[in-house]
Amino acid sequence: GVRATLIEPAATDTALWDTIERERFSGLPERGGMLGAEAVAQAVLYAVSQAAAVAVPNLILEHS
């Protein structure tokens, strides 16, 4: 009765990015091009709210 889902979000705009010194690291995504935390939360809710007969083994999230 246990199901597992791997949720792979791309860069997500959270407070974690506030601690990174952007000038020290080249190639970091701009925050405006990141996923919103709400969008990731909605995807998680989607995965866990599926019927028992439905498997969502992997969910890859990207900013469009």
Structure description:
- This protein has one helix at 37-48, and strands at 6-9, 12-13, 35-36, 58-61.
- The strands form two sheets. Strands 1-4 form a two-stranded parallel sheet. A two-stranded parallel sheet has the order 2-3.
- It has 64 residues and is of the alpha/beta class.
For the largest beta sheet, what order do the strands appear in spatially? Answer: 1-4
Shape field: elongated
Structural class: alpha/beta
User: Helices and strands, in N-to-C order?
Assistant: EEEHE
- Into which percent range does the helicity of residues fall? 10-25%
**Approximate strand percentage:** 15-25%
Question: Averaging pLDDT over every residue, what do you get?
Answer: 94
Rg for CA atoms: 15 Å
Q: Which segments are poorly predicted (pLDDT under 50) over 5 or more consecutive residues?
A: none
Q: Characterize the biggest β-sheet.
A: 2 strands, parallel
Q: Would you kindly provide a brief summary of this structure?
A:
The protein is an alpha/beta fold and 64 residues long.
Draw up the topology in text:
Blueprint: E1 6-9, E2 12-13, E3 35-36, H1 37-48, E4 58-61
Parallel strand pairs: 1-4, 2-3
Looking at this protein, list some descriptive labels.
4 strands, 19% strand, two-stranded parallel ribbon, alpha/beta, 1 helix
